[in-house]
Design a protein that fits this description.
Layout lengths: L5 H15 L4 H15 L10 H14 L7 E4 L7 E6 L8 E6 L18 E3 L2 E3 L7 H17 L7 E6 L9 H8 L1 H4 L3 E4 L4 E5 L2 E11 L1 E10 L3 E2 L8 H13 L9 H10 L7 H7 L6 H7 L3 H7 L2 E9 L5 E2 L2 E10 L5 H12 L5 E6 L17 H14 L5 E6 L5 H6 L4 E3 L4 E3 L11 E3 H19 L11
Parallel strand pairs: 3-6, 3-7, 7-17, 8-18, 9-16
Antiparallel strand pairs: 1-2, 2-6, 4-5, 5-19, 8-9, 10-14, 10-15, 11-13, 12-14
């Protein structure tokens, strides 16, 4: 092979060595200790404290040699302070922002087989609230920057890490607050958000890696029926709970129109090449016009259904005021995940049509905490400077594993950074089995081997992405 110049040669040699290396004992211990420390700091909205986690990670960075001037702990209140770290580079390119949230959803000890706020290793897994969403990613990013600092690595741009509050709920979302109050601290050319993407595996065997390059818009709607009520011994046809239930039954059987964006079209184009059993249907939905029979067959899978349609589902019910009285009020919360390009108001009006009852009022309640942007944004481009290094590192660690851009059907802080004009890509090297996704669920866990492999992946990817001598990798082993 002929090399174009000496710097490219150095890059090949350097990365060839890196691709052969496994995670060393010191790095494994560091990542383990950080992961354990984060899991055992309760950062729920109800009783937890994100500031405690931010301060703990700040001390990790101080101990690694980061100057105080490159650490910022700040936020709108004492419990919800964010941590921003900057590793200075050569300034050849604009900074890259790494983003991850420190807060976790609620977890009750009686629901779990282990204590959710204890870091427990058993049966080849780490258990604890946040092991998948997303203190694993926080630990990986912290470990990576500390490795860079100890090695004296100078990237071709500043690398900024923001560990933030209230992604899962609450009223103090850290990314939103930083953008509004301290944009200069996190302003970047693009963003790598660890809260999404990753290697989808089947019984431990990697199938493909996804990159969340877009996401749906989150919106809640309150459905309300009111009635004068009365004595329960004299039931009337106009029962508020019955009316609401009838409307929800109509919603249950309604499907929003089929749609593809530039990201979901690219997703199915690539998936059709790696899932032969469904390839015919995937290619058929890409036709103009799409084959609606193929859409119907794919829609039987909950994941495909949510990728191809806006979805709305009832998540909470409340009605009545006494056991011996007719209900005066019945309410339901309907949670919608909206395909980019549609507004919450447009979906609210569609819900009114589907419910088909003028006595059921529909109110847009916004997102959790009421702070997420209220309109969706065009998906960012699939930037070659992000995806080419990614595909090469993936191929060096998982030879032949496809990288597939997709649209997250959930929501993340990418909605803020994309809205601020910073293209955002959710990237993780952690492999999770398709039938073991436990985000927000009981007994949340991650495979031990998967976590440490992800530690090494992120180090290689970020170093390749920001290396002053370029990002070429040797052929896969």
């Amino acid at each position: 092979m002929k090399y174009r110049n000496w710097s490219t040669t150095v890059a090949f040699l350097f990365l060839a060595i890196a691709s052969q290396a496994q995670i060393d004992d010191a790095t494994q211990q560091l990542s383990h200790d950080i992961f354990k420390q984060l899991i055992e700091i309760n950062t729920t909205d109800s009783v937890g404290n994100v500031t405690t986690a931010s301060e703990a990670m700040a001390q990790r960075f101080r101990d690694a040699g980061f100057p105080e001037s490159d650490l910022q702990i700040l936020g709108p209140n004492d419990r919800k302070k964010n941590l921003v770290i900057r590793l200075h580079g050569s300034g050849k390119h604009k900074p890259v922002l790494l983003n991850g949230h420190l807060d976790v959803v609620e977890a009750h000890r009686e629901d779990w087989t282990t204590d959710p706020f204890q870091f427990v290793e058993k049966d080849g897994y780490y258990y604890g609230r946040g092991t998948q969403d997303m203190k694993d990613g926080d630990a990986i990013m912290v470990t990576t920057l500390i490795r860079f600092k100890k090695q004296g690595f100078v990237p071709d741009r500043d690398i900024i890490l923001a560990l933030t509050a209230d992604e899962e709920g609450g009223t103090s979302n850290g990314v939103d607050w930083l953008l509004k109050n301290h944009r200069e601290l996190i302003d970047a050319d693009f963003v790598l958000n660890h809260d999404g993407g990753g290697v989808l595996s089947d019984h431990g065997k990697p199938q493909f890696m996804t990159v969340d390059a877009s996401e749906k818009l989150y919106s809640d709607y309150q459905l309300t029926v009111t009635n004068p009520g009365g004595h329960s011994s004299m039931p009337v046809p106009d029962n508020a709970i019955y009316r609401l239930a009838d409307g929800l039954a109509r919603l249950e059987h309604y499907q929003f129109p089929f749609e593809l964006t530039n990201i979901t079209r690219a997703y199915y184009e690539r998936m059709s090449k790696i899932t032969p059993e469904r390839a015919t249907d995937m290619r058929a939905i890409l036709n103009h016009p799409p084959d609606m029979a193929a859409v119907a067959r794919l829609s039987k899978d909950p994941i495909d259904n949510s990728i191809m349609h806006t979805t709305c589902v009832a998540t909470r019910l409340n009605g009545g005021h006494a056991n011996n009285a007719l209900p005066q009020t019945a309410q339901a919360n309907v949670n919608c995940r909206i395909i980019p390009g549609h507004s919450p108001e447009e979906i609210r009006q569609e819900l009114e049509k589907v419910l088909a009852d003028p006595k059921i009022s529909v109110k847009d309640m916004g997102a959790i905490g009421g702070v997420k942007p209220r309109r969706s944004y065009a998906p960012p481009p699939l930037r070659p400077d992000v995806f080419q290094p990614l595909e090469k590192v993936v191929n060096s660690m998982w030879p032949g594993l496809p990288v597939v851009p997709d649209m997250a059907t959930g929501a993340s802080d990418a909605v803020y950074t994309n809205a601020a004009g910073m293209p955002t890509y959710c990237i993780s090297g952690e492999a999770i089995d398709r039938d073991d996704i436990r985000w927000h669920g009981k007994d949340e866990r991650v495979r031990v081997e998967s976590f440490y492999r992800a530690v090494e992946f992120y180090y290689q990817y970020l170093k390749t992405l920001t290396s002053p001598v370029g990002f070429p990798l040797p052929p896969s082993r």
